[in-house]
Amino acid sequence: RPPDQWPWEEDPPDTYFNYYLWANVTALNQYRHATGQNTFLYRPNAGETQNATPTVASAFLLADSVNHCMMLDTQPVLQYLYYLGRIGIALSPLSDNRLHRSYETNPFPMYSA
């Protein structure tokens, strides 16, 4: 369904948002490139909740890099794909500590080693 046909009571899945935003940023970038302007990178927030596999997988397919991605350490196959694809991950240990995980269980040291 097009975005304007989603009812307010029902949220579309995160993978739909990921694709919709990526498609629009890609179209905008084509226009900006053709007119000599700078282009944008697509860097969504992904993998902050317990059931983050679909969001992290769609971000792997679409994103230039991702922000947060806290639950990637529980998904070794996707973690390896991110490594092979050299897709950047921006983590903020103190912010994530406040919102999602304790500082001791934060995967930041493992990713930056």
What's the arrangement of secondary structure elements?
Layout: H1 14-34, E1 45-46, H2 53-62, E2 65-68, H3 76-85, E3 88-90, H4 93-99, H5 108-112
Parallel strand pairs: 1-2, 2-3
Helix pairs in contact: 1-2, 2-3
How would you explain this protein's 3D organization?
This protein has 113 residues and is mainly alpha-helical. 47% of the residues lie in helices and 8% in strands. It is built from five helices and three strands, in the order H-E-H-E-H-E-H-H. The chain has helices at 14-34, 53-62, 76-85, 93-99, 108-112; strands at residues 45-46, 65-68, 88-90. Strands 1-2-3 form a three-stranded parallel sheet. Strand 2, helix 3 (76-85) and strand 3 (88-90) form a beta-alpha-beta unit. Helix 1 (14-34) runs parallel beside helix 2 and helix 2 runs parallel beside helix 3. The longest helix is centred in the N-terminal third of the chain and has 21 residues, at 14-34.
What's the total number of strands?
A: 3
Radius of gyration: 16 Å
Strand order of the largest sheet: 1-2-3
Number of helices: 5
How much of the sequence lies in strands comes to: 5-15%
Which range best describes the helical content: under 10%, 10-25%, 25-40%, 40-55%, 55-70% or over 70%?
Answer: 40-55%
Q: List the uncertain runs.
A: none
User: What structural category do the secondary elements indicate?
Assistant: mainly alpha
Strand/helix succession: HEHEHEHH
The biggest beta sheet, please? Answer: 3 strands, parallel
What's the overall geometry? globular
Indicate the mean pLDDT. 83
Distance between the termini: 43 Å
